[in-house]
Write a structure and sequence with these properties.
It is built from 11 helices and 13 strands. The protein is of the alpha/beta class and 355 residues long.
Amino acid sequence: MALIHGGDTEGYFEAYGKVPLDFSANCNPLGIPVGVAKAIAAAAAQADKYPDPLCRQLRAAISEKLGLPPSYILCGNGAADLIFRLALAKRPKTALVTAPTFAEYELALKTTGCVVAHHFLEESAGFRLDSSIIDRVTPALDILFICNPNNPTGLTVAPALLQELLDVTRQTGTLLVVDECFNGFLDAPESHSLKRKLKDYDNLLILDAFTKLYGMAGVRLGYCLSSNTNLLDAIKDAGQPWSVSSLAQAAGIAALRECDYVNTARVLIQTERADLTAALTALGLRVYGGEANYIFFYAPIPNLGALLRQRGVLIRDCGNYAGLAAGFWRVAVRTQSENEQLIGALGDVLKEATK
């Protein structure tokens, strides 16, 4: 079975009988917080009972953390679950996504027969979104997805452009969906978030998750935010009632208390991102930067992923992203020692390739 995302450590273990050093998935390198692991273990004693289908305690905790009404919050089995439920709830006829970007937007939309158009990000502009997208927003467009920071490039959208998109989509009646799942890794998260705009724009839906920032990929917990409660109700009704387990709900509540953990991770990412970017550039790779916890680059070695895999290192091949071709790669920013292992393996592969 072909997989389109990174993080397939189980497949590697089956093939090699050992655990790889995984740079293909962009999760917090600190691992799951101790407090979260303890909360999951404690919640297991109550796992004989059905979870709260409305996630009331979890939504209250998110509400307090974000300063938003609980009615603005809908929880799901990861952000991907909510993306597919959104497509089922809205059944849009036309959609626009940037390219490259996270594949699940298009996959979900196509399950409902939606016609999906691409707004290609130009390599000459460093794959950064610019104002040319404004002309693509018309009354005929039902839904627009923006990933901020974008996956796989790690680049943010200029706040002024985000505001312009908010205004034009409201005028055209287009639903603007902004994925902020990697926002927490930015140096200044608040300046790149639209959460404070929710009360003024009922055509805005924001996606976020515990997956990346809290190292909880295996827990499966995400949420979406909107002041349009009718939209949230429709998304809720498009999925099964117990989409968030009681263990995941307990984990989310505990995660929101992990302020020191988040601060430590943010400082680590800021330092290691700069060092890893410099090291990749020093190897002669074409680095496009990254403002979150991953770095996007080009390497003129088509089998780079396979060669690193043989050395126990997984990186994300971005050749299957719309708008990209073979040779584009993404690596997570991890701890100093892990990043040094990656650079060492990359250096060995590049030396052998140029012999």
